Amino acid sequence: MPTQEERITTLEQNFASFQREIVKQGRRTDEDLTMLLGIVQEERRDSRRVVTRLDAIEERLDGVEVRLSTVEVRLSTVEARLSTVEADVHEVRATQKEHTTLLQQILERLPNSR
Length: 114
Known about the structure:
By secondary structure, the protein is mostly helical. It contains 1 helix and no strands.
């Protein structure tokens, strides 16, 4: 059976080994936490950049929507004008047909000049 002195020495050695292991694990934990902090900070910067870019995209899309609304209004005006022109063309064609019919009737009544 070991003596009390041997037992105390063994305990001291085990305690010293335990302390070294705790210190080593503490360093690893510190290193891991430092790396994790760096990653989190980089992710935060990336998130801010994404939000900034999304805000810029949203602003540009708002501008596009305004422009598209203006185009829609202008197209409606053009469509209305085209409808008016189309109606005028139909009216001119109808008048032309009437004139052609009248001219044919006049020509039929004229004596032959041959």
